[in-house]
Specification:
This protein is mainly α. It contains 10 helices and no strands. α9 runs antiparallel to α10. The radius of gyration is 22 Å and the shape is elongated.
Length: 196
């Protein structure tokens, strides 16, 4: 029984090595999907030893071929700065490229960057535009919440309680409980969230 388990474990390990070798071969031959997968393997220590510089290299190779997931991976690595030096200007560049592929998470992050003035100049009008796109086209609850708050406070737009409620309700309906809390704390004359 133990011998059978050991043989099975060896077979699984061998398949992982063969699979990794296949990705390396295909990545070196210019396959963007293999380059992205190899970058992910190095970033997450999946069948490869963790090596962030190799992850960045392979993501970069795939991004040069306009691979949407590789572009987003680079954006997130530079934005969050986990295991790599944080670089908001590169994050902004890659989020812009990812947004061109309709990645709504990237669109949301561009809104955040414009709202905070990180990696780009602070611009609440542009932030509102990005949050609106992520809220309407991507149905992202966190974008709906941000947009509702911007309408409530009149940031980047005129104060508009009707639009605020539309987006705060949408955020709540999409699983963002903080939306209801926000309204109940800040809402019109203490009227409950659900009375609107």
């Amino acid at each position: 029984m133990i011998k059978r388990i050991l043989l099975m474990l060896c077979a699984i390990a061998f398949c992982g090595v063969v699979s990794a070798q296949t990705y390396i071969r295909d990545a070196e031959q210019g396959d963007a999907n293999a380059q992205y997968r190899l970058g992910k393997m190095y970033e997450r220590a999946d069948r490869m030893p963790k090596d962030v510089s190799k992850a960045l290299y392979w993501y970069g190779k795939a991004a040069e071929q306009n691979h949407p997931k590789a572009i987003m991976a680079l954006a997130e690595m530079y934005y969050y700065g986990v295991d790599v030096k944080q670089n908001m200007h590169l994050a902004f560049k890659y989020f812009n490229l990812a947004a061109q592929h309709n990645n709504m998470e990237a669109v949301y992050c561009l809104g955040e960057m414009h709202e905070q003035g990180v990696g780009t100049a602070k611009n609440l009008v542009r932030a509102l535009e990005y949050f609106k796109k992520a809220a309407d086209e991507g149905n992202l609850a966190k974008a709906q919440f941000k947009l509702g708050k911007m309408y409530y406070y009149g940031q980047g737009t005129n104060k508009d309680i009707k639009q605020c409620l539309k987006y705060i309700h949408a955020a709540f309906d999409n699983g963002y409980p903080t939306a209801r809390e926000f309204w109940n704390e800040n809402g019109d004359n203490g009227r409950d969230f659900f009375t609107y």
